[in-house]
Q: What sequence folds into this?
């Protein structure tokens, strides 16, 4: 039992001591509470310290993993491509060495060796550029879509007559995006549009844009969220790319933006290009989609943030 | 300095095979010297054994340098080279399969004169040799 004692001295008018008042209070409970509080504080400090240590430890582990992945992709670049270089090279040497005894069958075999090695090389390059794009920062700034697209068409002979005809209709509004990321996306989309056409057909691509209402965000606990934000920013710029290519069967359309999914076996492709487009546009806060019918071309769309 | 020698630093056996082939096609097979790691490259340039005889191992007019090398990396060779007064200005063409911007930037910062990405087929090394011939081996007196 802990007791707190107080004494009070009582004096009369002349200042003479008359009595003493003693008060005893049982403070066991409050002392115990005080002790507990102190203990709790100590525990908290300890917990904080160990938590900080844990965060440091986990951060170091994560960093180690990132470094390892980085090293892994570095190794892929250097070591996995060397044998492919040799395969392609030696197939070519073989073709020269056998020039006198070459038959259509031998030639076909050599062609398959070469083209398979080239395909593997493309896969590696594309997978690397995908992982790089996914891990790098994409700061957003105002991008002039028209200038960007015209510049790209101008600098790639594959996007110009006689190889292809690409038209831009109307003014394309400025958007909030990352120019390097958008360049990559447009290059993949246009690259597909000129690649996946029926034999003998000249690829034709039409590009235009429209302002659309932003799709509603999914409600949270049944309550629509960010209503005000949506009212302020209720538009998206939808950029369309329409081609006269082979089209995409309906059952393949949902999968077309997934990694390593190809809509067709007839044309060369790695199944990474559109996955990359989806990832980059999503990281800019946008969305992608496609409308298509086999034999009647495809219409790809990208929803981008307008500049307000 | 014996003009025309190219020191190729490369650990990939078949890349060396195709480079030798390309030099032969360009009638430059006398010019090619090959070492297979970064330490050998440094020893070659420093004239350490077995590279003491400059008639057999002439000083190069240009170095063709892979980056990913055993023992001493291409970057380290480059760094060493730029600290050696006789080789401060020796042309170095980095020859790597890496398309990473960081690698290219680092090579430039360390003093590489050019960065050539390895073609995807060994057969196309002839194009690299043509480029070397035109840019670094032709008329060395005009490049001062």
A:
């Amino acid at each position: 039992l802990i007791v707190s004692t107080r004494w009070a001295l009582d004096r009369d008018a002349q200042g003479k001591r008359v009595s003493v008042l003693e008060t005893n209070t049982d403070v066991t409970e409050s002392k115990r509470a005080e002790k507990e509080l102190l203990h709790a504080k100590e525990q908290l400090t300890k917990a904080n310290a160990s938590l900080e240590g844990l965060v440091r430890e986990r951060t170091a582990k994560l960093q180690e993993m990132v470094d390892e992945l980085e090293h892994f992709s570095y190794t892929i670049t250097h070591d996995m491509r060397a044998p492919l270089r040799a395969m392609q090279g030696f197939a070519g040497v073989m073709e020269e060495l056998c020039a006198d005894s070459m038959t259509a069958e031998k030639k076909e075999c050599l062609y398959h060796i070469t083209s398979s090695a080239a395909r593997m090389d493309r896969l590696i390059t594309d997978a690397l550029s995908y992982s790089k794009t996914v891990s790098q920062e994409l700061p957003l700034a105002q991008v002039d879509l028209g200038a960007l697209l015209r510049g790209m068409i101008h600098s790639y002979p594959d996007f110009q007559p006689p190889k292809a005809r690409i038209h831009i209709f109307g003014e394309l509004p400025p958007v909030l995006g990352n120019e390097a990321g958008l360049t990559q996306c447009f290059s993949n989309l246009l690259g597909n549009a000129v690649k996946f056409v029926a034999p003998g057909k000249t690829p034709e691509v039409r590009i235009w844009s429209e302002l659309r209402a932003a799709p509603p965000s999914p409600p949270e606990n049944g309550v629509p969220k960010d209503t005000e934000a949506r009212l302020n920013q209720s538009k998206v710029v939808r950029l369309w790319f329409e081609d006269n290519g082979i089209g995409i069967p309906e059952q393949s359309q949902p999968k077309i933006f997934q990694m390593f999914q190809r809509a067709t076996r007839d044309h060369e492709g790695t199944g990474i290009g559109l996955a990359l487009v989806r990832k980059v546009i999503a990281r800019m806060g946008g969305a992608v989609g496609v409308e298509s019918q086999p034999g009647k071309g495809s219409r790809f769309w990208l929803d981008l943030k307008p500049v307000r | 300095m014996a003009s025309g020698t190219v020191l190729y630093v490369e650990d990939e056996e078949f890349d060396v095979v195709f480079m030798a082939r390309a030099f032969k096609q360009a009638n430059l097979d006398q010019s090619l010297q090959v070492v297979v790691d970064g330490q050998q490259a440094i020893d070659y340039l420093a004239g350490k054994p077995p590279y003491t005889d400059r008639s057999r191992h002439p000083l190069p007019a240009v170095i063709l340098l892979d980056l990913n090398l055993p023992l001493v990396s291409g970057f380290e060779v480059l760094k060493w080279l730029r600290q050696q007064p006789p080789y401060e200005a020796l042309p170095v063409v980095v020859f790597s399969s890496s398309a990473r911007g960081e690698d290219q930037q680092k090579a430039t910062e360390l003093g590489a004169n050019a960065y050539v990405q390895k073609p995807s087929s060994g057969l196309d090394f002839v194009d690299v040799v043509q480029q070397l011939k035109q840019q670094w081996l032709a008329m060395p007196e005009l490049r001062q």
